[in-house]
Amino acid sequence: MGDGVTFIGSKDFFECTALTNVVLSPFLKKIDQRMDGQQSGAFMYCSALRRVTPFLPDTLTSLGWATFAYCPNLEGDLRLGCGTNALTLATYGDGGAHFRATAIDSATIGANVATIPNNIFNGCLEMRDVYFHARPTVTSTAFSSLANYQTRFFVPRDNADWENYLSNASSVKPWADLADGVRDEYFSRFSGRKPVGLGLVAPYKNQWLSRWSPLDKRTMIILR
Question: For the chain, which terminal residue's Cβ has fewer other Cβ atoms within 10 angstroms, N or C?
């Protein structure tokens, strides 16, 4: 796409089953959706799509419902709301479904995303790492389809809203309190990766939790 493209329509690439790679404009602002009884996402059902670059542009301000839903081969490290503009994740019916049933590896949620809607990552069974820059509202089913012990959630250190959450014993199970068998789940899934202060965050189906520095993803701080 040329740098002058700032808008993608709701069905511009719908069911383009031969499409394997997309290079988006670095100035893209909106990916639309159709909501007139024939709901569709711009890249929905692009079954061969593997790579989107950038994924996604920091200039984006609006992402339509189900934009990349049912692109089962779509991989990569997703960035949402990491620029200077607020990003709205449109919803319909049961939630978002923007990346439903994709093979996304990780997601970085920037400070300009206020809400992570229901079902946005439904069926993302390859997702291993989620990085938060701030404390958005995370709806009850945003990550509900992840298998137990599958994903690591990294929350920013020195963030008061997250610290309040971390101090809630009903939400977080510290690493020191976990049974040996549960700890083994971490090592089996993240072989060769040093434990980074792990705890379990129960509401997200027992996913791993730690602090991190948004300035440097290599800086992992032990959860205490």
Answer: C
Tell me if 24 sits within 8 A of 57, measured CB to CB: yes
Distance in angstroms (rounded) separating the CA atoms of residues 199 and 218: 18
The answer to whether the bond into 57 is cis (omega within 30° of 0) is no
Res 107 pLDDT > 70: yes
Question: Which residues touch 53 (CB under 8 Å, ≥6 apart)?
Answer: 21, 22, 23, 24
Would you state the structure tokens that stand for residue 26, as one six-digit string? 């670095």
155 within 8 A of 166, measured Cβ to Cβ = yes
Q: What are phi and psi of 153, to 5 degrees?
A: -105, 125
Instruction: Identify any residues that bridge with 137 across adjacent strands, giving them in sequence order.
Output: 115
| Structural contact between residues 8 and 30, judged by C-beta atoms closer than 8 angstroms | yes
